[in-house]
Structure formats: C-alpha cells, structure tokens
Amino acid sequence: MKPWTKLQDWSTLVLGVILFLAPVVYGTYETAANASKCLTTNASTAWFFAPGTLDAGIVSIVLIAVSLWALVRPGALVTEWVRIVLGAWLFFAPWILGFVAIGALAWTAWIIGILVVALAIWKLLEVRSLQMHTKATSI
Length: 139
Fold this sequence. Notes:
With 139 residues, this protein is mainly alpha-helical.
C-alpha cells in the first residue's frame, strides 16, 4: 500500500480536525445548569474548561496524530486499533464525563465516534485482506 493514499486515513484526519474545532464553533457551556447562558463571550473563557471541551481537544489531537501515522505507514495495524479505542471513547464520553446535556457537543462526539470506529474497522479489514492475499500469492 502506498503512503498518503488511503481514504479512511484522510477521512479520520478530517474528523479529528472537526472534533478539535467543534467546541469553539458550538460554544460549549460550563455546566448543564448554565446551558441557557453561552460562556463564549470575551469576558469569559470558562467554556474552555468544560469536560467535553477538554475531551474533544485531547482526543482530537491524538486522533490527528494517529491518522498522520497511518497515512505515513498504511500497513500498521496498531493505528486502527488505537482509532477503534478512540472512537469508542468518543461515543461513551458524553455519559462518562457528563456532558450529555450539551447537545451539540454530545452529538458531535457520538457521530464522530461511530464514524471513526467504522473507518478503522473498514481499513483494518482491508489491510488484513491484503496481507492474506500477499501471503497466499507468495506461497
């Protein structure tokens, strides 16, 4: 497989960037109790410290890094397993970290989590199929 050519890796990279920008675009809230008052004004940066925002920032940076790694080394299976774990974490994070009430960020985490897992499984199956085909033809 050629580096920098896999659709799944580019898609996951784009999803990581979207996840990184989501808290800023949506303007998350400090707590569910303050959901009626958006804290993204110049006077307050409390939205930055919301659990969903920190989670999105950390996971997105790791997701971008792993996607770049997968683009450079398309046959590395470990990148797919890491993305499956990250996608599963994204899906369950709104419940675990308690930001389900922040609907936009929770839905973003759920959708991106499902897409990341689906793309990683697709690539994992593709890589394994290619490896099996290569083994069969080399015998």
